[in-house]
Amino acid sequence: MNRQDAINILAEGRGAAVSVATMQSIYPWHQAEQGEMLHVDASQCMGSASSIGLGIAMARPDKKVMVLDGDGSLLMQLGSLVTIAGQSPENFYHFIFANGLHQSTGNQSLPGIDRFDWVALAKAPGYAEALKI
Questions:
Q1: How far is CA 87 from the centre of its chain?
Q2: Kind and range of the H or E run holding 123
Q3: For the chain, which end, N or C, has fewer CB atoms within 10 Å of the first or last residue's CB respectively?
Q4: pTM of the full predicted structure?
Q5: What is the pLDDT of residue 19?
Q6: Confidence at residue 100, expressed as pLDDT on a 0 to 100 scale
């Protein structure tokens, strides 16, 4: 599935959720008219979208929180998966757009991209559910 198709599906189902988008997801999320309300652009803080989203989810358990993350961004702060799983907020939804690149810094290939699995990395520390589409 390409990124824009996935973004469009997420935008349709968003409802009143708070959204946090990083790097490669920011522009398409705004193109889908989702960046105006209850939204944070996590730019210039590579790898922090999931941590920002976790903080919002913990502070506002009454709000669904959607994090639109990039694979290169999350790889920069992979330890956040352990922290998120440890807190297990029921209102936290983490979407990773995997293109195998550090897109925001010049499209460098991610190290070891063919050697790990995002679903396994999410499940290992205790994410309740992880899927690949």
A1: 16
A2: helix 118-123
A3: C
A4: 0.91
A5: 98
A6: 66
